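Entry 14. Ran structure prediction on the chain below.
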Amino acid sequence: QVQLVESGGGLVQAGGSLRLSCAASGLTFGIYRMGWFRQAPGKEREFVAAVTWRLSRTYYADSVKGRFTISRDNTKNTMYLQMNSLKPDDTAVYYCASDRRADGPYDYWGQGTQVTVSS
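Output, structure tokens:
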């Protein structure tokens, strides 16, 4: 199994920045990709960004392209999400997830970290 712990959430004004971290532990050698998802109140969880663990290929939702940057540090088994130019619409609980495969549902999920952007 893989354990995932998110950190770095908080309250920020619109236009501000936050950096989320996701620390992975356990059977991390099997990870193929990791991703960030978010869920706002009353809405379904949505994809934000993903990165492949070995080659660091990145993927983004259209809504965050140019504002968010996903990265990973294999030596620390940690994934990051740098969020700039934050908007009130970015307010949500942000979850990290890991998967052993290239597609399909993610295997493991963290508990989530709250991001609140005030206008």
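The mean pLDDT is 96. Will compare against last week's run tomorrow.
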